[in-house]
C-alpha cells in the first residue's frame, strides 16, 4: 500500500517537474530594454537586451538591470512553483484535508 503511494508520489513529482519546465515567466524592465524569460522550474531560458532602449556603453547599468530582471523572474518562478506544488499536494490529499496546510 505505502509502496504504491510512494511510487505515485514520485510519478506526480516527475510530472510536476516536467510541467514546471513548460511554464514561462517573463520579466521586463525599462519599457522592454531588458527582458528575462525563466520557467517555473527556476531556469533562465532567455535574456533579451534592446539596445535602442538602453545605453549599452554603460556596463554597470546594464549589469544592474540584468541582475534585477533575473532576480525578479526567479522570484516569480518560485512563486509559481510553490502554487503548482501546493495544488499537487492538495490533489493528493483525501477530501476535506486540502486546507490542512493553510491553502
Supply the key terms.
103 residues, alpha+beta, Ybab, Chain: A, 3-stranded antiparallel β-sheet
List strands and helices in order, with pairings:
Layout: H1 2-20, E1 24-29, E2 34-39, E3 44-49, H2 59-92
Give average pLDDT, whole number.
86
* Top CATH class: Alpha Beta
Tell me roughly what share of residues is in helical segments: 40-55%
Low-confidence segments, given as residue ranges, are none
- Strand % is 15-25%
The outline comes out as elongated
Describe this structure in words.
It is a single chain. This protein has 103 residues and is an alpha+beta fold. It is built from 2 helices and 3 strands. The longest helix has 34 residues. The protein is elongated. The two termini are 27 Å apart. The mean pLDDT is 86.
Provide a concise account of the structure shown.
By secondary structure, the protein is α+β, with helices and mostly antiparallel strands. The protein has helices spanning 2-20, 59-92; strands at 24-29, 34-39, 44-49. Strands 1-2-3 form a 3-stranded antiparallel β-sheet, with helices on one face.
Amino acid at each position: 500500500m505505502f509502496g504504491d503511494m510512494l511510487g505515485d508520489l514520485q510519478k506526480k513529482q516527475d510530472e510536476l517537474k516536467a510541467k514546471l519546465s513548460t511554464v514561462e515567466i517573463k520579466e521586463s524592465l525599462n519599457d522592454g530594454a531588458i527582458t528575462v524569460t525563466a520557467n517555473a522550474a527556476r531556469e533562465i531560458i532567455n535574456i533579451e537586451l534592446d539596445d535602442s532602449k538602453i545605453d549599452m556603453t554603460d556596463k554597470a547599468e546594464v549589469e544592474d538591470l540584468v541582475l534585477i530582471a533575473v532576480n525578479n523572474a526567479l522570484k516569480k518562478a518560485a512563486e509559481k512553483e510553490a502554487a503548482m506544488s501546493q495544488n499537487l499536494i492538495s490533489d493528493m490529499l483525501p477530501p476535506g484535508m486540502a486546507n490542512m496546510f493553510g491553502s
